[in-house]
């Protein structure tokens, strides 16, 4: 029934390759089906100025898409002179989600910047960015622990993200581009390894949804999270 | 237990005054406690270019905050030379939410722009913008129906929004600024008059949340929606 | 003879309501006919850097217009990415005019920012901004005097502004939008309570003017100033 | 008594050299004392879009200052990414003033752009720009008349500008930089050859002024206009 | 003698992998040592407006660098709100170089946009972009030939680029980052397969150079071009 | 054979007038045929922050073109809100070239900013800017030496620039606008007084070039440099 031929609760194949760039403290290339995102984590000695003297650290994220990551070419945001509202919304979501898995006291007054750049897009780029971004973050923190820069591990749990939606009246998991553009309702669920909710973002795009449907989508998201966390563990 | 002294499920007093400006096709000043937002709806003859020839209409929104709507003065976005990511995220949410209550075929190739400008902020400005924006939209559509520009009413239901959160371990409804800044988890629920879900946006800010809590928050949101829809009806 | 039906030297009804927002140190909503402007004054501990060490204070102003303050909707300047030349010219005028009524030594190294946001426009928005802005400034200074932050009152006199023009060959006072768009010559006169001139800005828009006409316009402006200063006093 | 040693009503030496650039339809280098401005007039076939179908022409102006036209170097506005409020205010004034001397019906649906670029600044750059800009405009119109592009001369009179101010309690004419920075009140007077007023802009900078002083300043401005118009005539 | 341990005329290992993204008409990932660039070619039906009606086609290029492509993180240009002068200079060079290998009449009124995004940088990114960009362009043109969109092959020859410099007084080929930052003179040579010069850009960075040295650098560049063209052929 | 009627190796008449503005530490107006550029040098006490504590000085350049320096009017870059890629490329070249003639240790931690503003353009504006910019720089350094601010002369040699190209199959020197727009290959050569190469920038624009042609162009450039250096000496 799905354009992709997948079962309602079937995710796309996932691969996470680490150590992609020699410069970054942590990096990976995550592939969720045909969605490919390069994630790097950069450790900065200084926290943002609004945290000065608080002893708290910060994790932030930036998101970009190569011009031809999509079916037709998109204008380069640097040439346009600004990041779109969509880009800003996504990178704020990634940063917020990753911070939910961090003990900011244990991190101390440092900042980790996670860059997520989409090389090829086929739906679910923000979810792949969070799942892959967490791996890059984990690797950067591991490096700091090994170097003795950090005494305690500030990472409290996995963070992973998956999209769900209602397509043709049926709840489905992990929408690709085609499914996403035709779904009446869709959204993103960010969960921890312990299946606690970090962020829920459901939007009606043409059709509103009921509380029953909301429940079914949450069930799917929990199942998807298991698959994603397993892939994160396998990659490390 | 709440800083505001309100009960867990108690909303702030709501007032909606219509006909605030003589120029706009629809307008109101909505007050949800100390959060005051001026909403206007502008009817434009032309739909955005991406809809040309489709016969479909569009509803979009813009959001702003006067510099001294907040406790300390914020820099004017026009002086800064761009809208913040937060502003863009909010106005995209308002537009998306209002479109969920519109039959775009019945509207036809027109655009209605809803401007929401915060005069005084005390938490929940995006929710007040949606609830008040819907009233401005309703008034503008009424005017078009009366003038015969529209034959069929394109508005299919009320749309209203309320924030919920977990404060001191308890689910609470309609957070003011103080409550919002201390809540471990909070978010926004946009519902129709028929209590269908339009948008759900829950974020962990320091503490993740469980599915049980999610259920309680949805219960609160439904209760709040009844109050808001009643206020919308009273204003019209 | 005037489109508004007013006598040549008749001003529109004026109302000034103070205490409009709970956050600002001083605030008012000024209505000059159908022109409505919300004015707030914000006290900042630090003067601008070019005054560092001089002992002198500063008063500056910013001006904005809500998108639907006008007959047809104007593009939001924050979305356009910059303030128009008109906006900058107006806010520079407001700041300069208000500074003329201040003893900057008595103010000391502080800054007061006056924000003037037009809610509804019907001609004369910059004049209403100055007249109302002065009230907001007066209230903020009163608060500082009461709190002992200031020992001496830095305000030396009222400052008020009114437009004058030549319409159909006749000098008229306080032009509304219709009169303004058809006047051959018009401009703004900013005076103190003692009727000293602070700023004179007369422009020929299609027809030049004579020294005799200039004299008549100055007479009208003096009469208008009396009305405005009385309204300021009544509001305080 | 004046820092420049000039009499109260004495202007600086004026020279206007035409034909400065080979490309522009009209051009001149105007020197008013040590203030040197290069003015060019460009004829464009199309009027701005807001005039489409009206049969009316337009004259507009742009103003700039070379970075080292001033005592210390100013940041290049193109590098800063925007024109300052001061620049925009000045170029709006120049355009408005020049339009006052033009019959826009006789010009027809064309646009003439007058560029005024300050090579060396010593006070009064906006006035020199107007006086010199008018010469460039006159030359461009002459060329169009000669080529038969225009049948009737659209220029109705000379337009010239001079600054006046109150320095040490005395009204003075044509302020240089030193005098300008110390004057309590100063402004610009734009007049036609027939001594009609086009624009009056007087500002109190630290000291308000009386109607008597306003009268004296107008007298000075009329005297200065005679000198400027004579220089324009001599240059053509 | 070289920090890299390479011989004076020894290039780094080169690999070019094609078909990297499913969306682009042509694409490759080129690796020149540790410099990795993703190149895509996008075919657009319309040529730029300045070519309308000329029958001529256009090839243009855009260049970007992921924030953590470098040793320390660079600010994202989309966040900064503009492309740096360096970025613009590089993308102009890439476009100009690729156009030199194209018969624009045979291409017809179309545009091909080549995007070069640096994934990892270790010196010579602009050269790798040109060499890899040519492969992406070749693939896109092959696709158009196969589809019958083009009748004649518009590509007249290979285009490849290599850097040369003078390091420790010796001419060296294909500088990596370390060598580049210490070379007294360096630059880029773009040649065709037939060893004709397309572009020569030599700059003294601290030490000027002689005509004899220029001759030696040209010899090195010719040798390097042979290696690069062979790699291009192998990849296709 | 050349449109200009000049011999293949004949330069346009050159004049360099110094002391053009009273404010700058060094200034000149250079005319190379109909290309006229105003060059000023500004001495700043502080070097750029990246040089702090190194003891090294810096020379940088900015380039601009008046809107009507060209045949048809160009949009003012300050109004466009950014400098074009071409402008940035040119000013980076000017700065790099002038630095090649400076001993940055002898200059010490200061910065000299050279502004080159094109008053009238007829090809070769970047070359005229370098040749004239060097004169302004020399004058500013002379002033510092005279004032004792510098003990040792940091200028090690003249720097001058000339364009060369291949027009109708023949190498020609110092292209004017017409020749430039029709040349198949052209570029710029920057040399010192001792005829050492500082920068070579040759580009094929439609036709590639051979090493033999490169040699002939270098011969022409050396001849042109002699003429330019003589003109620099004559001006000082």
Question: Could you list some keywords that capture this structure?
Answer:
homohexamer, 236 residues, alpha+beta, Ribosomal Protein S5, domain 2, five-stranded mixed sheet, four-stranded antiparallel sheet, 6 helices, 32% helix, 29% strand
Question: How many discrete structural domains of chain A?
Answer: 1
Between the first and last Cα atoms of chain A, what is the distance in angstroms? 35 Å
Strand content of chain A: 25-35%
- Strand tally of chain A is 9
| Helix share bin of chain A | 25-40%
Highest-level CATH class of chain A: Alpha Beta
Short description:
The structure is a homohexamer of 236-residue chains. Chain A has 236 residues and is an alpha+beta fold.
Characterize the structure shown.
By secondary structure, chain A is α+β, with helices and mostly antiparallel strands. Chain A has one domain: 2-Layer Sandwich (Ribosomal Protein S5, domain 2), CATH 3.30.230.70. The first copy, chain A, is built from six helices and nine strands, in the order E-E-E-E-H-H-H-E-H-E-E-H-E-E-H. Chain A has a five-stranded mixed β-sheet with strand order 1-2-3-5-4. A four-stranded antiparallel β-sheet of chain A has the order 7-6-8-9, with helices on both faces. In chain A, a hairpin with a 2-residue loop joins strand 6 (159-167) and strand 7 (170-173). In chain A, helix 4 (125-146) packs across helix 6 (211-235). Chain A is globular. Chain A binds chain B through residues 82-83, 85-86, 88-89, 91-92, 96, 100, 187, 192, 196-205, 208-211, 214, 218, and chain B through 82-83, 85-86, 88-89, 91-92, 96, 100, 187, 192, 196-205, 208-211, 214, 218.
């Amino acid at each position: 029934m799905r354009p992709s031929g997948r079962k309602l609760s079937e995710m796309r194949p996932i691969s996470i390759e680490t150590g992609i760039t020699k410069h970054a403290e942590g990096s990976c290339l995550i592939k969720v089906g045909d969605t490919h995102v390069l994630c790097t984590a950069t450790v900065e000695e200084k926290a943002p100025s609004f945290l000065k003297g608080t002893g708290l650290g910060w994790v932030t994220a930036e998101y970009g898409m190569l011009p031809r990551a999509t079916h037709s070419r998109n204008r380069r945001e640097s040439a346009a002179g600004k990041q779109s509202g969509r880009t800003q919304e996504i990178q704020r979501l990634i940063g917020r989600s990753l911070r939910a898995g961090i003990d900011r006291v244990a991190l101390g007054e440092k900042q980790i910047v996670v860059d997520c750049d989409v090389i090829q897009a086929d739906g679910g780029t923000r979810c792949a960015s969070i799942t892959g971004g967490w791996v890059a973050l984990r690797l950067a923190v591991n490096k700091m622990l090994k170097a003795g820069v950090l005494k305690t591990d500030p990472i409290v749990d996995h963070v992973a993200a998956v999209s769900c939606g209602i397509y043709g009246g049926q709840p489905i998991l992990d929408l690709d581009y085609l499914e996403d553009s035709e779904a009446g309702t869709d959204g993103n669920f960010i969960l921890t390894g312990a299946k606690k909710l970090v962020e829920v973002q459901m939007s009606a795009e043409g059709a509103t949804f009921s509380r029953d449907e909301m429940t079914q989508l949450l069930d799917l998201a929990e199942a998807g999270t298991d698959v994603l966390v397993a892939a994160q563990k396998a990659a490390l």
